[in-house]
């Protein structure tokens, strides 16, 4: 008999973090402190499991009980396209209660389960277009910390360190509110100039600047970046305004990339392409509602001869890079001179995305998404199960 989905659980557990977010959601280094994280587990009637680390705010009990369990329980977990569509169709009547991220977490767990059932890593199930990808170092946002990322010179010094570690590409996140004085086009240009001068012409550089510049501020910044031979210009304005991005992309030679945070899954991405709002499309395993719709965006872009870059780190985004080669980079970060990104937190046995001396990440060979979870830690530190 075909196995069907039997149990869907979210376990809240404690672990240790060395970063924290500011009131605007930007992550910075912090002293080690206890935090709660969450694991979604989907189990089928044969005992096969799909597991993924999630943000529990998107999978509260009401969301699980009203939408996710009714849509999935008793269904064949391998029929991801059908299950994703049935969940996505529930979004309209959920009045904002069933988010794209919730869809994404469920889809990731189903891909992990499929990997465990077949004994294959997800990047291979997605077609195995390649088995590794170059990483770009994605910095944390600018701050006010001495020796951190407080000045253009700090960004330049950190960029030199990153190149020494093997990275061949670096993306800056410059100063954003609530940092006093941020944002500032002049300061952004100073940081981008300092980094280019520090690393020379052979390192690819990108900028992800304050997300709420005006059109004219974004244009001024973009023109400076193209003079500095930057590789792409990311999210300088509110992404809901597609016509602003078309206005910007029409006037710049440097590739404009997007959208990253815009809601609307693969449908919004198609609008960006046909509107001419970007030169490089953007997707992400949880940004667009899962690996399933993210693969659609990669292939959509490919059919327009466009690159489609994957936003964010983690096992789902790494797996997604196996679905094509027009997502050229893996975004590794967020990095900071006072934070050891390679330190393994207590709920993991190893990091999934170690880089080699050339800044390349080799995809994991473990079945499923490949996260090396310490299930004993998670079990013994579980404080609540939804
Ligand atoms: O604003 C930030 O803190 C970063 O931009 C962050 O959201 C990061 O995920 C990003 O945009 N990467 O490209
Ligand atoms: Mg970004």
UniProtKB/TrEMBL annotation:
Cofactors required: Mg(2+)
The chain positions of domain Mandelate racemase/muconate lactonizing enzyme C-terminal read: 152-255
InterPro entries referenced in this protein's UniProt entry, alphabetically: Enolase-like_C_sf (IPR036849), Enolase-like_N (IPR029017), Enolase_C-like (IPR029065), Mandelate_racemase_C (IPR013342), Mandelate_racemase_N_dom (IPR013341), RHMD-like (IPR046945)
Alphabetical UniProt keywords: Magnesium, Metal-binding
Q: Where on the tree of life does the source sit, at the highest rank?
A: Bacteria
Do the record's keywords include Metal-binding? Answer: yes
SMART domains assigned: MR_MLE
Give a yes or no for keyword Magnesium in this entry: yes
Which PANTHER family does the protein's record reference? ENOLASE SUPERFAMILY, MANDELATE RACEMASE, MITOCHONDRIAL ENOLASE SUPERFAMILY MEMBER 1
Query: What is this protein called in UniProt?
Result: Mandelate racemase/muconate lactonizing enzyme C-terminal domain-containing protein
Query: Which species is this UniProt entry from?
Result: Kitasatospora herbaricolor
